[in-house]
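hiii, so i know i said id send this last week but things got crazy w the move. better late than never?? heres the sequnce for the chain we talked about at the cafe, plus the structure i predicted for it. fair warning i was half asleep when i ran it
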Amino acid sequence: MSAGFWDAIAERYAARPIGDEAAYEATLARVRHWLSPEMRVVELGCGTGTTAGKLAPSVREIIATDYADGMIRIAETRCTANNLRFRCAGIEEALAGGPHDAVLAFNLLHLLEDMEGCLAHVHAALAPDGLFISKTPCVGARWYLRPVVWLLQRLGKAPSFRFLKPEAVEVAIRDAGFEILETGDYPPKLPSRFLVARRL
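okay and structure toks below
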């Protein structure tokens, strides 16, 4: 995954409206259900910070991280909650300073070359019974998208990503030492698999 790609599209990404507002709000509602005011939270791959800004009132502290500096610069101008801090950091650096009560990763896992490695780092950084909350586009069953995506990637208009299936994401999370507490698809037609998992 290239930080340069995300830096280059940061302004366009920030200006793009949310594709499915109802699915986004449903996801936020389920995330808030699991958060509590005493929690210290880290978000991985926060992009331009919209979700972190919306969740900040539900927790004690949220550190929202992204390894694309262009995304973080925009986030810092858009979200100014007193308990919200932004950091340009890769996954290991973002998770340093734990243990954390919860780690969030929305629309991230499918972009990682080493999803399993990321999950191992998350597990190690969480407090006992800490939560990992994620949502991942899963288009593994849509084989016909592969040539289109390949062409867009060759043109520099799409990042590299994995064609995951929901079941594969769940297996990876369990294998990393988590118990899955909740699943859902928001929206269901993609599907975009929402998962809440507890560190064992």
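btw The beta strands are 40-44, 61-66, 84-88, 100-106, 126-137, 178-185, 192-199. thought thatd interest u
miss u guys!!
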